[in-house]
Write a structure and sequence with these properties.
Number of helices: 8
Helix content: over 70%
Distance between the termini: 58 Å
Largest sheet: none
Strand content: under 5%
Number of strands: 0
Length: about 180
C-alpha cells in the first residue's frame, strides 16, 4: 500500500466501512506484530498488543497526518508492548509446592475438589461399606480389629468388605471422570 491508500482506507474505516478496516488490518498488522516481537513478547502478548493498537486507532477517529499511519501504529504498538513488559515486571509467579509454604493454590483447589467428590462417593456407599470407608479415612486409619468390632463382623470379613467398598468407590469416581492411575 502507498500513503494515499492509507489515507483513503482510514477515512472509509472511520466512516464505518468494514471492508476498509479489514484491508487496513490485513495490510498493517505485520508492522504491529513486528514491533511486539522486537520486544520479545510471546504470541499471546503480541496478539494482545496488535488488538489494543487497532482498538486505540478505532477510538481515536483522527490523526494529524493520516499518511503517517504506519508510523503511528508502530509507535502505539511500542507503547503497548512496553506496558505489557512493565506489567510482567510486577507479576509474582505462582510457585510450585514448597515445604515452607505448602502446596500451590491450584493444587489446593484440585485437592479440595477431589476430596469433595470422594466424600460424595463414600456417602453413596451402602451401610457397612460406608462406615468401613469412614473408619479407613480416619487419621490414623482404624485397624481391622477395630473395624470388625465397630461393624460387628468377623475380622476375616473386613478385607473382602473393604475390597467391595473400594471397588464400588472406584466405579463411582470413574463415572465422574476421576480415573485411577
Amino acid at each position: 500500500m502507498i500513503d494515499s491508500d492509507f489515507v483513503d482506507l482510514l477515512a472509509r474505516a472511520w466512516r464505518g466501512d468494514e471492508t476498509a478496516w479489514a484491508a487496513l488490518v490485513r495490510g498493517l498488522s505485520a508492522v504491529i506484530l513486528g514491533v511486539a516481537r522486537s520486544h520479545r513478547l510471546g504470541d499471546a502478548d503480541a496478539s494482545d498488543v496488535c488488538q489494543n493498537t487497532w482498538a486505540a486507532l478505532a477510538q481515536r477517529r483522527e490523526l494529524r497526518d493520516p499518511a503517517r499511519l504506519p508510523g503511528w501504529l508502530a509507535t502505539t504498538a511500542r507503547r503497548h508492548a512496553l506496558r505489557v513488559l512493565e506489567m510482567r515486571r510486577h507479576e509474582v509467579p505462582v510457585e510450585r509446592d514448597r515445604p515452607d509454604r505448602g502446596p500451590a493454590p491450584e493444587r489446593v483447589l484440585l485437592i479440595a475438589e477431589r476430596d469433595a467428590v470422594l466424600r460424595q462417593g463414600v456417602a453413596a456407599l451402602p451401610g457397612h461399606q460406608q462406615r468401613l470407608a469412614e473408619l479407613l479415612l480416619r487419621d490414623p486409619p482404624a485397624t481391622h480389629a477395630e473395624i470388625a468390632a465397630e461393624l460387628g463382623i468377623a475380622v476375616g470379613s473386613v478385607g473382602p468388605l473393604r475390597r467391595r467398598a473400594l471397588d464400588r468407590l472406584r466405579r463411582y469416581l470413574e463415572a465422574r471422570g476421576y480415573d485411577h492411575p
